[in-house]
Structures are given as C-alpha cells and as structure tokens.
Amino acid sequence: MNCQREDLLKSEVDWKHEALLQTEIHNPHLDQPPFLVREQLRQGYETPFLLLDSAFIRNQVRRFKAAMPRVKPHFAVKSNPDAKILQILKEEDAGFEIASRTELDALLQMDIDAAQVFYSNPVKSSAYIQYAATTGLEWYSIDSIEELRKVHHIKPDAKFYLRIHTTNEGATFPLSEKFGAYPDDIERIIEEAASLKADLAGVTFHVGSQCTNIENWRLGIRAARQIFSQMTEAGLKPRLLNLGGGYPVPLNAPVPEIEAIGAVINTELESFPDTTQVIAEPGRFIVAGAGCLVTRVVGTTQRDGKRWLYLETGFYSGLMELKDGLPLVLQSDRDGPLTPWTIAGPTCDSIDVCAQNYPLPGNLCEGDLIYIRSAGAYSNACATTFNGFPSPSVIVV
Question: What is the spatial distance between Cα 369 and Cα 161, in angstroms, rounded to a whole number?
Fold first, then answer.
C-alpha cells in the first residue's frame, strides 16, 4: 500500500466523503470545516489531541435551558472533567452532578458550593460518603435499602433521591440493569425511609445514554409522579425531580432535537407543583459536538482479506465508545474510493480493536491524520496511558 503523503494543511479540504453523503441526513455541525482544528494544526502535530470549541459548549447550555425553562441542567462531570470546561459551565450558571470524590474535589477547587452538587452514583463507599458530608454536600442518590441505611447512618440529615428502573428502549447504551429500583423495591425503600425518618425527597431515572426514544422521558416522569404520591402517603416530603441524562447528539443518523424532547418534558411537568425542583444531568449533549479528536495513522496492512488501519488512538486512549457501538464519524483529508477497514489502536492488546468494516478512503497510509467528530464526551474522560501510549491532550479554544 505505497502512497504519497498529501499536504495535510491544504487550503480546501473536502470533509464530506461518500459515506456521509449516503446517510441522507443533514447535520449542520458536520457541514462546517473544522477551522479551529486546521488552525491548531498549523502549529504542527505531535500526539493525539481533542480540540473543544467553548462557544459551542456555551450555546448547548443555553439551548438546553431555552428548551426546558423549568429544568436546570446539572452537567455530568464524568462526561468530560476538564477544568476549563467546568469553568465554562460555571460561567453559564449550570449545576453539576458527580459520581466520585475526585469529581467533587474538582468542583470544590472552583469554589462550587457543595450543597448545590448532586451525588448521583447510587452506590458509594462509606469513605466517599463521609468525605462528601464534610464538604457540605446534601443530595445523595440511592436505589436500595442498603444504600439508604449506609448514607443515613453517616449523614442523618442527608437529602435522598431515589433512582428508579425505567425503560431504556431506543438508547445506544442501556443503563437500566446496573442501577434502578423496581416497584417492589421502591415500596420497601419508602417504608424504610419513613421508619428512619430519612429525608427521601426526590426521584430520578435515566432513559439510557444517547437515547432516541422521546417516549422514555414521558414514561419516566409519569412513574416519578406516582412515586411522589407514594412518598406523600408515607409522610415524606417529595420536592425534587431529577430527569437524568441521555439527551442525544447527531452522529451518523437523525436524533430527536432537544426542543422536541423538551416539548414532551414540559407538558409532563405540568402535573408537578411549581414548588418541585426539577433538574437534569446532560453530559454528552453539552460537550460531545464541541470536540474533534485528531489522531494519526501509524500503520496499515491486509490480513486474511481484510484491510487493517492502526491509529495512534484506540480503545484505551479515547475510542472506548467506538468499540462499544457509538457511531462516531471518522474523516480524513483523502478523497479516494471508500473501502471497509478494521480500525485498531496502537497497543499490543487484542481488545484494542474499535470497529469492523468502517468505510474510509482506501488510499490511507501511515502518517495521515484522522478526524473524529463529536468526540467531546467520554473520550479524554475514558482515556488511559496503557502500554505507554499517550491519551489525547485537551485544547479548549
């Protein structure tokens, strides 16, 4: 596969290869040449990097708020914990949701009031709970009697919100098996909270990551409304509804617009009193589209009739979700005929194979750059330096 390297900084780059044209969708973000990326590349390329557009992030926060005026977004820190991104979100008056002590510490370093942070991991170590309690963190998610008792023993005045099981139909990554209380569990948890005089004050659910089924939100909110009634009958004072995450972003197929999701949510919220605090936990929606991950081809070969493309970034260094089935869009500067590639990372681990039969130009060769669009969420956040290979550096402009 000998080929001559083209100028990576040519003035005009065709960013829409044949595979994208065949999807019959219109994604305005992908239609725009990544000018910021090309400007960054004028300084050269040394290792993979994730470039994030701060203006895009700000716009997503504002768009979310406009679509659901009653819902305050609390950014899921796990999706991208970069300090510059967190600062942007603080400036946009977004709240925050955490899953660990490290994420809490990142917020405390920014002078975020811990009382306004939501600890949404339903299973936490006693040490983490004790630490969170010392910082003034008040809100804790649970989905079992055991977790209710654990947190209440450590922090008797904690405010609890109950994560319930709900359908994840239509989500790329279903999240309803590991966490979420079922109806029988819910009844027992409410009874235990009343017995302990614990402040079980809210309900939360998660429709599944990258969810394209708007009906999931409707069903989740209606289930929460019924549980509010159960809590009230038990003498509890429900006052928080947490709509969780799952708000989708366009990749290589149409997804519901946030305005369409918001219209359903706004209608369902009419059954809750104005005194109910309503929040959500968007992560991917806010940061994914802001990011372009730039990596390099380190080798190509053909094995048993299949063409292999080895990248400097793989499963361990930012492309975990590509392997898990997220339809990320990969592009290059080349415009040759498309051919199916097996895409692998640089490590010596056989797990590091991210995609099969991915259509890219057949004339790709070592040294070519690959641009991975809408990669601002769960890329650098999930990256490691396994085998000594670098995780992407983060550049926020």
Answer: 46
